[in-house]
Amino acid sequence: NSEKGHNLIHQLSEEVSRSICTGQVVISLSGACRELIDNALDAGATNIDVRVKENGTIALEVNDNGTGIDELNFPVLCKPHATSKLSSVKDFDQLSTFGFRGEALNALAALSDVTIVTKHTDAKLGSKLRFDNKGEIISKETVPRQVGTTIIVENLFKTLPVRRQEFVRNSRKEFLKMLNVIQTFALSRCDLRFICSNTVNGKRIQMIATPGGTSSIVNVCASLFGVRAEKGNILEIEEAIPDDEVRAIYGLQDRDDKVFEEIKIYGYISSCEVGHGRHSADRQFVYVNHRPVDYSKVCKIANSVYQQFNRGQYCMLILFIEVDPAALDVNVSPDKRTVFLHEEKRLFAKFHASLLKTFSQVLGSCKELPN
Ligand code: ADP
Ligand code: MG
């Protein structure tokens, strides 16, 4: 296309643009796992069992007891932008599912060997489907299975040799990140049972098993981290003083757009005596409207307040932020972990005030350190 020295703009072939894009949808083992758990949750699963082999380098398998997949959808399952969850742009405002772009299965198929075993609520038998890297079904058989879906991802990144090599080299670290992703889900959905195991040299090691059912955040914390709430190791975050007072103290302007009126926050933080971990990111979990997010500004606030009470350690933080869905933009990054929030400053002020209130309630037992 450089005829007569011209450098003509041309559209990339579908194949080239596809491999560029899919490589960005799923960039890591933990990202793959997150997408698969999102799908299981969207399907209404109450049991989610993640099994990996050799830290995920051989296989990642996510088993759920959700609705299963309707046979009519088999041919398009791993095709680009195939989704059952979004049909028009205006649906964005009312989005209640984790998935909406129809890209995850397509990307995984392009990057690995995908097998799906599923039985839909209406189906008599289960089906086992294998897909090629274009997302076409290459084999299909009927198999016995209870209602639900298993998605098996083998040889992740085999079509991107450099990334594959990097993944295999850092597989232990990647596996730990994946555990963190599952912990993140487990803390936000105490009603669900999450299980995770890793098979290394033929030996299966159970890493996570949350109780599910009617268990509370406190119970899930105990099962994940061995943190004992009954010993006063974690504190429930006290919702701060009313918004108008927060505004006054932090010098924030009053706004008249009523849409963004309510910001609710609740959750748990380590007590001042018992911090959890030397690294801040270890055990800090933030959710906006129940969506796990990377919100370093919020963690920074927690760390700076916590430092006033405990200089040696970081705090565990499990924080739920609830805002009007219209005040939130989730479609910022491919992994959906970045959010834009209107009136972010008000949230920060409220959170800061809430933490001070939480710790001031127990100040009898822990003194604020002098600066
Ligand atoms: P999205 O989640 O954005 O719709 P995905 O590529 O993740 O896109 O999934 C494509 C479609 O496959 C989903 O819309 C859903 O209909 C179906 N699907 C994927 N995983 C599951 C599952 N575990 N249970 C039921 N249906 C699933
Ligand atoms: Mg999805």
From TrEMBL:
UniProt KW DNA damage keyword: yes
Swiss-Prot/TrEMBL keywords: DNA damage
GO molecular function (one): ATP-dependent DNA damage sensor activity
DNA mismatch repair protein S5 domain residues: 246-360
GO biological process, one term: mismatch repair
GO cellular component terms listed in the entry, alphabetical order: MutLalpha complex
Protein family membership: Belongs to the DNA mismatch repair MutL/HexB family.
Name of the protein this chain belongs to: Uncharacterized protein
